[in-house]
Amino acid sequence: MSWHHGDTELRSGAMHLALCRHLDISRDRLSSYYKFKLTRKVLSLFVQNLEDLVSLDISGHLMLENCAISKMDDELGPPSIEPSKSSIIPFRALKRPLQFLGLFETSLCSLTHIPSYKVSGDKNEEQVLNAIEAYTEHRPEITSRAINLLFDIARIERCNQPLRALQLVIAALKCHKYDKTIQVTGSAALFYLTNSEYRAEQSIRLRRQVIQVVLNGMESYQEVTVQRNCCLTLCNFNIPEELEFQYQRVNELLLNILIPTRQDESIQRIAVHLCNALVCQVDNDHKEAVGKMGFVMTMLKLIQKKLQDKMCDQVMEFSWSALWNITDETPDNCEMFLNYSGMKLFLECLKEFPEKQELHRNMLGLLGNVAEVRELRPQLMTSQFISVFSNLLESKADGIEVSYNACGVLSHIMFDGPQAWFIGEPTRQEVEERMWKAIRSWDISSRRNINYRSFEPILRLLPQNVSPISQHWATWALYNLVSVYPDKYCPLLIKEGGLPLLVDLVNMPSSHQETKDMARKVLEHCSNYNEESMDTAL
Fold it and tell me: Where is the Zer-1-like leucine-rich repeats region domain (predicted)?
């Protein structure tokens, strides 16, 4: 039972509560509502008269008199819950330990001998977790302060009961979906409780529960701190794998965060990073679905805003990287990029940030995806675009990446044949010569900042005699990848039927000798890889 009356009433009432088993006279120490002051005498009165008492909560009371035994006596012997050893004098009259004793935000919780099996308090992790458990349902203001203490424990020390802690915070966030204070403290605690230190102990089901409450928080609160905490917590998960069960919802929420381009800088950076991770290494259906949600337009608007501010920061680079990922083998998204003036922004970024190597790499990677779509290539066939791509062949930005991707774009354009080259300047021959020169300048053992899930766009450039330079670029790409990363790319090339195409290329009269020699080396690498794999298997 709960009691919030005056001192005299409480004394007389205690006499009539002989059968009382649960007594809650706790108070919120920050509230001025409570007039009653708990004294040592009144506490003794309860203990003496309530013989059936199993739980008592006196949290929040500032004891007017000293109820504790001397510090020297308190420290004698190991901690005990026996009433006879109680460090709290009034509780020495107990016949047996209590099941629960609420001492949160009192000085008594720091004593050594407390006669209760379960104690809520702020002395250590166990007491704090007991406090969250006891007060979540009916005392959100106290719960919030207890979660804040847990946050400090998780941040500064190490949680000894991380699973229990996580479950209690999840329960509090679910119970108080619209309590801003709990959402702020709870989401902050989740960030520390889901990091890699504790991951191994957490089940898939539990981590999914975390994701659900985080997304609930993002949905209910536009407040900066909650949004930042929720986004940071999502960064603790394997993306996209662990978020796939809520894929559409999480993307919608992140895009909503990014729509106001004046958004808090740190949230914007984290949200764009998450968006990029979510569209990397997922199937094309997912990419198409996210594209229809407005992903491409949102990224382009962020880029436009950064251009206006003349700022090339992580948001700018992540936005181009996200566009590179979402357009990979996804023609609809490539078309959206062109329709929403993506090429205009590409040219403006090149002009405004001529020295930003990673930016150039991301932009050219994206344009490589666009160039793979035959129906869209005519939109790239302008003197301005072709001149820009040709000039980028000589770029040394990010190793060979920018030059390589520029050459890839031009290789796909060349693949459409002379009849598709409907510009006067630069001529097809001039561009072709610059491509040969660029490829010959690359180091075949270059380590790469690129990840191919499929070789199909490269392989389609092999069985043709329209553009020997396109064939050569494709062969160089395969040779580089299978020689530097054989374990990853030899099996992929074999699986996708690349070897017969290379054999045909070697026998093709129109292929350059240089290309044929390189194709033989690719075949040799794959043959050696197969033999080594068999040896290992044996």
Answer: 16-106
Provide the pLDDT confidence category of residue 72 given band limits of 50, 70 and 90: low
Consecutive H or E run containing 22: strand 22-24
**Residue 260: count of CB within 10 angstroms of its CB:** 10
Alpha-carbon 343 to chain mean position: 30
> Could you give phi then psi for residue 169, rounded to 5 degrees?
-65, -40
Of the pLDDT bands very low, low, confident and very high (cuts 50, 70, 90), residue 11 is low
- Consecutive H or E run containing 120: strand 116-120
Buried b (16+ CB within 10 A) or exposed e, 133-172: bbbbeebbebbbbbbbbbbebbeeeebeebeebbbbbbbb
Instruction: Locate 301 and state its tokens.
Output: 């608007």
| Nearest residue to 282 via CA among 451, 404, 401 | 451
User: Distance of CA 55 to CAs 7, 117, 125, Å?
Assistant: 21, 10, 20
The three-class DSSP label of residue 447 is: coil
**Burial of residue 282 (number of CB atoms within 10 Å: 0-12, 13-18, 19+):** buried
Tokens of 351: 């002009």
Half-sphere exposure of 431 (CA within 13 A, CB side): 30
Q: Which two tokens stand for residue 389?
A: 């791509």
Q: Where exactly are the structural domains of the chain?
A: 7-123, 155-320+412-537
Instruction: Evaluate whether 86 touches 53 at the Cβ level (below 8 Å).
Output: no
Tell me: the pLDDT tens digits for 125-158? 999 999 999 999 999 999 999 999 999 999 998 8
Q: What is the DSSP string of 476-537?
A: HHHHHHHHHSHHHHHHHHHHTTHHHHHHHHHT-TTS-HHHHHHHHHHHHHHHHHHHHHHHHH
Q: How many CB atoms lie within 10 A of CB 65?
A: 10
Q: Which CATH code is given to the segment(s) 155-320+412-537?
A: 1.25.10
Q: Is the pTM of this model over 0.90?
A: no
